[in-house]
Amino acid sequence: MRRLLPRDAREFVVGDLDEEFRRYVVERTPARARRWYRWQAVRTIWRFGSPNARVELPAIPIRDAVRSVLWRPIASITIVATIGIAVAATTTVYSALDGVLLTPLAFGDPDRVVRVSLDTDDSQGVPLTAGDFRDLGSTARSFSSVAALWGTVAMAIGEGRPVEVQALQVTTNYFATLQIEPYLGDFGNPHPDGNVEMGTGLGGDVVISHTLWATYFGSDPTVVGRRVPAGSGTVVVSGVLPPDVDPQTVAGYSNAGPRTRIDMWIPVGPGYFDGGNRSANWVEAIGRLAEGVSVEEARAEMVTFAMVLREASPAYEEAEVRVRLTPALHEVVGQARPTIQTLMGAVVCVLLIACANIANILLAQVLASRGDAAVRSAMGESRWSAFLRTLATTCLLAGAGGALGTAAAWFGVQLLRAAAPPGWPRLETIQIDLRVLTFALLATASTAILAGMLPALREARRDAADVLRDRVNARGSHGVRRSLVGAQVALSLVLLAGAGWLLKGFTTLQGVEPGFQAEGVLTFLYQDSRSYPDGAAVAAGARALGERLELIPNATAVGLTQRMPLRGGDWSGPYATEAMQADSAQASADYRFVSPGYLAAMGTSLLAGRVFDGAESPDMIVIDANLAAAAFPNENAVGKRLWVQPQWGGQGQWSRIVGVVEHMRHATIAREANPTVYYPIFQVPMGPRLYGAVRTTGDLTTMFEHVRDAVAEIDPRGLVAQPIPLPELVADDLAATRFTATLVGAFAAAAVLLAAVGLYGVLALWVQERRFEFGVRRALGASREGVVAIVAREIATMLTVGLVVGAGMTAAAYRFMESLVHGTSSSDPAVLVAAIGALALAAIGGAAIPARRAIQVDPVNVLRG
Amino acid sequence: MTGSLGEFEQLVLFAVLRLRDEAYGVSIRREIEANTGRDVSAGAVYTTLSRLEKRRFVSSRVGETAPERTGQRRKYYLVEPEGAATLRRSYTDSRRMARGVLSTLEGLAARADSGGE
Fold first, then answer.
1. What is the pLDDT of residues B22-36, one digit of tens each?
2. Which of A488, A504, A753, A810 is the most buried (most CB within 10 A)?
3. Which chain A residue shows the shortest CA-CA distance from B63?
4. Cβ proximity of A264 and A209 under 8 Å
5. ipTM higher than 0.95?
């Protein structure tokens, strides 16, 4: 205060105020005197102070805060760094949450669009059949429009060096259903050929993405109407999508596969579904809810609609099919949702633990500065300004930490986008924007409040006489600090157990036998560009290619199929045994059409009988072990007959099982696929999009050149693309689990470290405060072990409460992240026990130094004072 | 040399006069409070005194300390002739202006006092 007064007036003014204060203490009460003094001092400075006093007066708590921050540089740096890291981590994860889960999809009224799919008892989200889709369009009243997408087509477009483009087939009303307006042109006329997938070539209108328009067509405004060579024919560009529409989002749940980027859409007329075939589920349907219809109302109608479908299809009746409606955003986001939510939960735990640590450090400071504060209090500092002073200190530290953290979050976001597992949706929407910055601010503010409130209240709660009651006050505070450590232990346990589950799940997944030997296998995509007069010619074309591929040098085995594991898509159909047929029952199986070398190329083990050898007849099939177990339990399946339906809409046929192979996982390594039927690919028209697998002991890169050369001999304009080694596909599939396990593991490690540091701090202070007691005990004959026992009891008290609460919270956390964890369960005691053990070890590590200090207390020194 | 005085300046000058040799911050503030019943802030007194001293209406000297002042000395004030002249003129002016309207003033002010708000 003196400093704020004019130099020549300081002495008299301060003296006057002191003099009057003494008189008021006598005349009135000391409390009223203090209030008067403060009020007069502030007003005097305000009216009479030196020229900059008016600026400086409100800055006093800030100045005090700066002073106290600078006074303890190490503690301050620790706090700022802790807050910085916590805010950075929280903000980074929040940016993912905000971008992926909260940002609406980039088309009109996205909340009104749902995906329509089927659930059975053993699978969820199965696509519709053509017949189902036709019925949906004609009967469902809940939708203003329903559209379909299916069948990705790869093609080379352009002259000279063609560019590989992935195209998706959609119904003509697809974009209208999504309420996407064309950027240029229109969304074209239905494709004249209807079925593009069946290898009849292209010739109609296509819609292209804004990216393709910008890169391949150089943003040419006259692109509409341009004829572009594509595959064996030409396509006509009829429209360009707007820039903000993410084509991957729109195609998010096509069978495109994790690494496929859709840049072209082929509109197909509604007549395509007139046949109403019900044998294969391949139609991805979306619907826009009609005006005034809620999702719940639509779901209610779908219960009735499921009855209609069950009536039309015996297989559905058997499988008790239900209709599922999923909001488009949920569908697009998929598995990323529980991942991000788990990460967010984990990172908030870390933030809370960091808050508890900071609160502990600040509390220790409050205790350490008791003398200082008592003097302030005696000098008339009010509780309110003591509170403000401490809170200002925290705000200052939090502000610095928050700024640091927000800056670091910028890098965090770049890192996250680079490190996110392949196939993570909407990565481009993850960014630092106003909402994320607001979140960072809120996180910082909550840190300041959470960490600063307790110390500030404690600072405010004392009076001048506190110095004398030193010990009592410290004890009271120890209870608070002990609870903080308990909370840290509880939260750390949740994180550790969660990380343990994820890690165990990950290692379990790594140990899964997927039904193929990935090492040494190169997979690729082949899009046939040849034209065929009929189905037999299609099959012959495939055979010609297959046989040419067999001649590739250094290839141990080469095979073709219509659906490659881990590369998206599915293909299912009915089957029946003779017993089932007698009850006119059917069941559903996955169908894989394979060339003779395919199973050998994939390294799938033959369990009984033989695989195809190229000389088979159309009534031979190979089945997998799961189908053998389902259809012929405890029997040898080889030689048995099975009713299958290899062609869409075709008649079913009885086929002879020539071999049984091990089950191959398809969509993901985490789950078994349906029981599978292998059918010889050269016996049916299949294409034009096929996958190949080459097994080699040599170099995979040169192998791809060989494949390309071989295909060029048979089909010069055919497209050989997307060479991906099978081990990479496996790694991609595990990447999401690895990613979550790694991040949660890192958060858990940070949490345990923070908790150990917190425990160390609390215990160190506790030992310091009880030095005298320990000294007396030792002097009275207590052994070192006796002192250790006291310290151990103290540690146990802090740990036990935390562990008990933490174990309870862990069960809740498990339910939350259940869908992310494979091969373990919340009742798995090993993980929890390991987590508790690790935490106890960390606690002992944190407690070691203070415990040593307690033992080393020298009774003589202490008693001498 | 000349110039007018604000109302609070008048009060402070009168207080210094009344206190003779004993006029310093605390006593001046108390004198005004005791005679007017007003709540006077220390800051206002110091501001006014410093202004009056700058206009040479008062002078000051550093005095002794007292035990209750924790070693800080007092600053005593005296009214200078210049200040006395201005105060007199100011006061006389007020009195002259009041002549003949005091009863009206009383009547009007009484209304305000008796709850004319």
1. 899 889 999 999 999
2. A488
3. A12
4. yes
5. no
